[in-house]
Design brief:
The protein is α+β, with helices and mostly antiparallel strands. Helix content is 21%, strand content 17%.
């Protein structure tokens, strides 16, 4: 649980995220803070899809920006920490015309 949380969830946000993202999605997930259920905050990583496996370039899940939110449509599978997670890193296609470069 902690290996996936630290390397697949925290690392990408801490390395590539803005200060705002770090404050919202790293800080509460690095200490002993708990969520509403009294559990520690845990993150997960959504890459694999049925039929595509872990081929990020073949992602069929889509994400569409709607104001200041994103609408994510599709199915992910085999997500470590999914049942415990309060937040997730999810690979999704945001621009199909860019093919594999349209994955965010």
């Amino acid at each position: 649980i902690m290996s996936a949380h630290n390397s697949l969830y925290l690392y990408p946000i801490d390395t590539f995220g803005s200060d705002e993202l770090k404050e919202q999605y790293v800080t509460p997930y690095t200490g002993h803070e708990s969520n509403e259920d009294g559990k520690l905050n845990i993150g997960c990583f959504g890459l694999s899809e049925p039929g595509n496996g872990s081929d990020a370039g073949a992602a069929s899940v889509t994400a569409t920006e709607d104001g200041d939110e994103w609408i994510v449509n599709g199915t992910k599978a085999w997500i470590t920490n999914a049942h415990e997670a309060g937040a997730a890193i999810v690979f999704a296609t945001t621009d199909k015309s860019l093919k594999h470069k349209g994955i965010s």
